[in-house]
């Protein structure tokens, strides 16, 4: 299963379960939300020695052996749930690793560059996006993003390991800080999405525990009683919300907000165990729904625990890894 921007809740699910996932999310967030200034800053960092460093980190990662992909585990977990093996499904989701970095690099090369850097988007109207840059600059920038992903997933950033701050992304951020999540939500015309992330920044672990298993069925299944969704219902609702986001031209904005949510959720204490028990589904589904202004059943579980997202006076950014 290849990643795409339309499936950003699934990408976030794989990242939020990993300690280094926060740093990976920051790399991808920067890339997806990049305008011409950010892409040029990244390209500037692909200089002498960068290719050799990328090769070194790639060899280091390869020496660790093959890694089972995270996304396929979702399908197997659904089979286990339908068979009544809930404990086995939870263990699978708690332990299966994030997809190999090659798949993340493929997301950048095959999706981010052509969709976000080569044509105007809702976040970057015509004349403000990376489409104004020569192809060679975009190619160097994509190589720098690939290096940043290697640094994040191998602990190879200078002065850090296990996803610590450092390396290409830190240097690019100093040159051209990306837009905040609040700006992203405003660009998409969805203050409720910013409100939801603002509430997440104040969430406690007990609240996240209450979200577990609270993913609700469609509204006709009495969400007021907290009726659990049948297997596959959440995926179907998120799929419909993703189509609506595509129609509204908000797919890139949705991906940025889901990636912002990874860091905020980890700050609040959402770990692999809580993600596997449904907390990430409740969070990411609600975020997708409010941005799409569709599928209210996805928001019901979040609202029952955290309150309905309405407005956002401010949106904190996730804390950087120590």
Structure description:
- This protein is mostly helical and 322 residues long.
- The chain folds into 2 domains: 175 residues, no CATH class; 125 residues, no CATH class.
- It is 62% helix and 0% strand.
- The protein contains 17 helices and no strands.
- Helix 3 crosses helix 8.
- The two termini are 32 Å apart.
Which short descriptors sum up this protein?
single chain, 322 residues, mainly alpha, 62% helix
- Supply the number of helical segments: 17
Q: What's the total count of β strands? A: 0
Termini separation: 32 Å
Strand percent estimate: under 5%
By oligomeric state, this entry counts as single chain
Task: Let me know the largest β-sheet.
Answer: none
Query: What structural class is derived from the secondary structure elements?
Result: mainly alpha
Helical coverage, percent range: 55-70%
The tally of structural domains comes to 2
Mean pLDDT: 77
What's the order of the H and E elements? HHHHHHHHHHHHHHHHH
Unreliable runs: 159-165, 216-228, 311-318
Shape: globular
Give me the Rg, rounded.
19 Å
Secondary structure layout plus pairing:
Elements: H1 8-16, H2 21-32, H3 36-45, H4 50-63, H5 71-82, H6 86-95, H7 101-117, H8 135-154, H9 167-175, H10 181-187, H11 191-200, H12 205-211, H13 233-248, H14 251-268, H15 272-276, H16 279-292, H17 297-306
């Amino acid at each position: 299963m290849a990643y795409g921007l339309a499936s950003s809740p699934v990408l976030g699910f794989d990242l939020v379960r990993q300690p280094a996932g926060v740093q990976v999310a920051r790399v991808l967030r920067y890339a997806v939300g990049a305008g011409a200034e950010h892409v040029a800053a990244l390209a500037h960092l692909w200089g002498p020695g960068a290719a050799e460093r990328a090769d070194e980190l790639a060899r280091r990662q390869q020496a660790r052996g093959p890694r089972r992909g995270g996304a396929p585990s979702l399908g197997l977990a659904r089979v286990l749930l339908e068979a009544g093996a809930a404990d086995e499904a939870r263990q699978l989701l708690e332990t299966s690793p994030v997809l190999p970095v090659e798949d993340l690099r493929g997301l950048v090369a095959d999706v981010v560059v052509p969709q976000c850097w080569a044509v105007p988007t809702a976040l970057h109207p015509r004349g403000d996006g990376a489409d104004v840059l020569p192809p060679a600059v975009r190619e160097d920038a994509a190589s720098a993003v690939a290096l940043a992903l290697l640094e994040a997933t191998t602990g190879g950033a200078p002065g850090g390991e296990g996803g610590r701050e450092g390396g290409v992304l830190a240097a690019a951020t100093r040159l051209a800080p990306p837009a905040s999540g609040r700006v992203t939500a405003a660009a998409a015309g969805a203050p409720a999405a910013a409100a939801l992330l603002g509430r997440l920044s104040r969430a406690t672990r007990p609240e996240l525990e209450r979200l577990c298993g609270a993913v609700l069925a469609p509204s006709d299944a009495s969400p007021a009683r907290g009726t659990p969704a049948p297997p596959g219902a959440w995926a179907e609702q998120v799929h419909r919300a993703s189509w609506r986001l595509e129609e509204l031209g908000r797919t890139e904005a949705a991906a940025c907000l889901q990636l912002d949510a990874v860091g905020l959720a980890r700050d609040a204490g959402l770990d692999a165990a809580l993600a596997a028990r449904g907390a990430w589904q409740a969070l990411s589904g609600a975020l997708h729904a409010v941005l799409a202004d569709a599928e209210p059943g996805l928001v019901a579980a979040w609202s029952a625990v955290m309150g309905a997202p309405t407005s956002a006076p401010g949106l904190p950014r996730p804390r950087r890894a120590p």
